[in-house]
Amino acid sequence: MTGRPRGILHRDIAHSAGSWTARAAMKRLLELNPYVVAQLTLLDPFMPGGGSELNTALMSGAASLYGNDRMQRLENYYVQPTAARSFIAQ
């Protein structure tokens, strides 16, 4: 026994604009607690336009946040926008 507390697993699953809150929560938990192990799953995260500092590069940079050695999983599921979609019922 090393005397170290066991790791605390923190999982966030977020959709759309909630992705930014989940990213911020994970960042803060990793900074404040050296025993937190984090997982972050994003479902179609919202990327505001118009020169906002909340952009794809910032969200993609989550992999290099402080404590990234304790990130167990980072997942990003999204739909690529297209000009027209057709759905065929079968």
What is the gist of this entry?
The chain is α/β, with parallel strands linked by helices and 90 residues long. It is 22% helix and 26% strand. Strand 2, helix 2 (56-60) and strand 3 form a beta-alpha-beta unit.
Any key phrases for this structure?
26% strand; three-stranded parallel sheet; Double Stranded RNA Binding Domain; 3 strands
Structure description:
This protein has about 90 residues and is an alpha/beta fold. The protein has 2 helices and 3 strands; from the N terminus they run βαβαβ. β2, α2 and β3 (about 70-75) form a beta-alpha-beta unit.
Give unreliable regions as ranges.
Answer: none
Largest sheet: 3 strands, parallel
The best one-word shape is elongated
Element pattern in H and E: EHEHE
What is the topology, as strand order, of the major beta sheet? 1-2-3
In what range is the share of β-strand residues?
A: 25-35%
Structural class: alpha/beta
- Count all strands and give the number: 3
**Rounded mean pLDDT score:** 85
CATH architecture call: 2-Layer Sandwich
CATH topology (fold) name: Double Stranded RNA Binding Domain
| Number of helices, counting only DSSP H or I runs of 4 residues or more | 2
Share of helical residues: 10-25%
Number of structural units classed as domains: 1
